[in-house]
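Field log, afternoon session.

UNIT: design team B
ACTIVITY: writing a sequence onto a fixed backbone
BACKBONE:
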């Protein structure tokens, strides 16, 4: 296993230095366009509408610059709305911006594949995946605690968190990092300014998504962020409750 900057992955694969890579777009499509590789599976196929990229700042910054923080979150929400509105009608304009050398710098056609609702697994095998990239639909911009808790369960599952933690620990850590209160303050400002619709935000959410059904995730195991330890126990591979990582060994 090795670490390679995403823009360098296609060239590294072509040179034979690596045999494959895991990366976001447009670098999978770049390999297809160059004829040097084929994607095996997309994360949308692994877990429909899974948690993805985040915008993060330090607690100190948010406290020192609360108005700047809300202004930036407002801008992110507005951009997400623009990207998804009118059935992705603005995506070609976004692709043109992203293809500029000062941004992503990949060819327009390479970026357009996934951004405009398609994904090409190999030359000629171009499939319609309208929700491959979602920016605002399904409350994609809302910072759900359950998304944070899923990441924490995986850190525990693979030993990055060495000891068993209580369900409340997972929730407390999530709530210390994910800030739906700041998000909703920014959303309220946008609604009051006529730049967003009231109905598009989960005002009454407790921060937890509904249970992810088995059909939406590749291992067929439902995920409920409210009960992280029960979820960990349901997984056939990985650390269980009561096991502890000591050095490179698992005890328990």
């Amino acid at each position: 296993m090795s670490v390679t900057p995403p823009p360098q992955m296609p060239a590294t694969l072509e040179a034979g230095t690596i045999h494959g890579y895991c990366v976001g777009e447009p670098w999978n499509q770049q390999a297809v366009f160059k004829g040097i590789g084929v994607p095996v599976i997309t994360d949308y196929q692994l877990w429909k509408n899974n948690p993805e990229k985040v915008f993060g700042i330090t607690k100190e910054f948010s406290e020192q610059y609360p108005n700047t923080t809300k202004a930036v979150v407002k801008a992110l929400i507005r951009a997400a709305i623009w990207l998804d509105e009118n059935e992705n009608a603005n995506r070609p304009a976004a692709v043109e911006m992203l293809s500029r050398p000062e941004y992503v710098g990949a060819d327009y056609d390479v970026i357009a594949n996934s951004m405009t609702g398609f994904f090409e697994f190999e030359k000629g095998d171009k499939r319609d995946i309208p929700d491959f990239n979602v920016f605002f639909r399904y409350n994609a911009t809302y910072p759900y605690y359950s998304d944070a808790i899923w990441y924490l369960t995986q850190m525990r599952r693979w030993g990055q968190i060495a000891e068993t933690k209580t369900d409340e620990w997972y929730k407390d850590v999530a709530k210390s990092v994910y800030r739906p209160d700041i998000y909703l303050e920014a959303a309220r400002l946008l609604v009051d300014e006529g730049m967003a619709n009231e109905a598009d935000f989960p005002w009454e959410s407790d921060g937890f998504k509904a249970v992810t059904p088995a059909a939406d995730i590749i291992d067929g195991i439902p995920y409920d962020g409210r009960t992280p330890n029960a979820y960990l126990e349901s997984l056939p591979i990985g650390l269980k409750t009561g096991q502890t990582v000591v050095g490179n060994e698992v005890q328990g």
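LOG NOTE: The longest strand covers residues 118-122.
NEXT ACTIVITY: expression trials, pending approval
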